[in-house]
Amino acid sequence: RRLPPWLKRPIPSAGGTYFTKALIGELGLETICESGRCPNRSECWTRRTATFMVLGETCTRPCGFCSVKRGKPEEVAIDEPDRLAEACHRLGLRHVVITSVTRDDLPDGGADHFRRCVLAVRERTGATIEVLTPDFDGRHESIDIVLQARPEVFNHNMETVARLQQYVRRKSQYQVSLEVLRHVKAVQPETRTKTGLMLGLGETTEEILETLADLRAIGCDFLTLGQYLQPSPRHLPVARYLPPD
After folding, report:
1. Which residues, in sequence order, are bridge partners of residue 131?
2. How many whole angstroms from its chain centre is CA 129?
3. Predicted model pTM
4. Which of 200, 208, 210, 194 minimizes the C-alpha distance to 244?
């Protein structure tokens, strides 16, 4: 289907993305901008900002909405925190967002690597840092490892309403994701918690409101709501496009 007019934006000049693209390539980094086929990539990269994806480019979970490669992951690159910090320094970032693939193959789910990345970036740049983590299978000890680095924002996406979890995320669970956010707030109240929901996958208004009530009950600070867009024909279809009002 053709996109509705409110979703159409002018495409920035391709030359404006060159600096960001070249730097990411030079330092051998991954971004969710590329792996997730984000339609806003050129707009962000022109402004010399990106969302960095650590722990490799291969995910261990087969989510139906996501275009990140899945399969058997590669070894964790020990020097990645330093390369990430260098990129953030050269981009002049004041707020850095670090996400990752899900690494169910690692004993801690990659939590200590997250911790090292946060510490390296903060030491090199002094920027505030937001982590966007997987659910770590709900293991509190892994969440606590990330919290040792004291990121300013701890983000974990619910992605969708409870009824659609198995359809959209397959191996993830609604209550586990809620517990991740609840635990962060209970252990480290000063850390801002954040989550995101995709809209247009078949959820109802009542289900969205129920989800918002659940998030408020656990003290979640920030919420993003975004239109789901199909990365490719093999991914979940868009059930509807929501007008801005």
Report:
1. 98, 154
2. 13
3. 0.94
4. 200
Is 158 in contact with 211 (CB distance < 8 Å)?
Answer: yes
| CB 101, CB 66: distance < 8 Å | no
pLDDT per residue, tens digit, the chain (245 aa), is: 688 999 888 877 767 789 999 999 999 999 999 999 988 888 899 999 999 999 999 999 999 999 999 999 999 999 999 999 999 999 999 999 999 999 999 999 999 999 999 999 999 999 999 999 999 999 999 999 999 999 999 999 999 999 999 999 988 999 999 999 999 999 999 999 999 999 999 999 999 999 999 999 999 999 999 999 999 999 999 999 999 88
DSSP output for the chain: -PPPGGG--PPPPGGGGHHHHHHHHHTT-EEHHHHTT-TTHHHHHHTT---EEES-S-BSS--TT--S-BSSPPPP-TTHHHHHHHHHHHHT-SEEEEEE---TTSTTTTHHHHHHHHHHHHHHH--EEEEE---GGG-HHHHHHHHTT--SEEE---BS-GGGHHHHTSS--HHHHHHHHHHHHHH-TTSEEEEEEEESSS--HHHHHHHHHHHHHTT--EEEEEE---SSTTSPPP--PPP--
Buried b (16+ CB within 10 A) or exposed e, 132-168: bbbbbebbeebbbbbbebebbbbbbbbbbbbebbeeb
**Cβ atoms 123, 84 nearer than 8 A:** no
Phi-psi region of 56 (alpha: psi -120 to 50; beta: other; left: phi over 0): left
